[in-house]
Design brief:
Structural class: mainly alpha
Helix content: 55-70%
Order of helices and strands: HHHH
Number of helices: 4
Radius of gyration: 12 Å
Largest sheet: none
Length: 68
C-alpha cells in the first residue's frame, strides 16, 4: 500500500497525447478514478503515520507535489 501511495504522490510525465511513459499513463488512469480518490482520502486518516503522510501527498494536486 505504501509503495502505491508513493507512486500516486509523485510526479509523472502524463501530458495528453504523450504515450512514451507507461508509468505516466497508469498514473493518469488512476488519478482520474473517483474510487482511487476516495481510497486516498480515507487513508489520510490512517493510524499508520507513514500511510497517512503518503496519502496526504497523493491527495495533493500535481503542481503541489515535490520533484525528486
Amino acid at each position: 500500500m505504501l509503495s502505491a501511495l508513493v507512486f500516486l504522490g509523485g510526479r509523472h510525465r502524463a501530458e495528453p497525447g504523450y504515450s512514451g511513459d507507461p508509468d505516466g499513463r497508469l498514473f493518469q488512469q488512476l488519478m482520474e478514478s473517483p474510487r482511487i480518490h476516495a481510497l486516498i482520502e480515507r487513508l489520510t486518516a490512517s493510524d499508520n503515520d507513514w500511510i497517512a503522510q503518503a496519502a496526504k501527498l497523493a491527495a495533493r494536486g500535481p503542481r503541489d507535489r515535490p520533484l525528486y
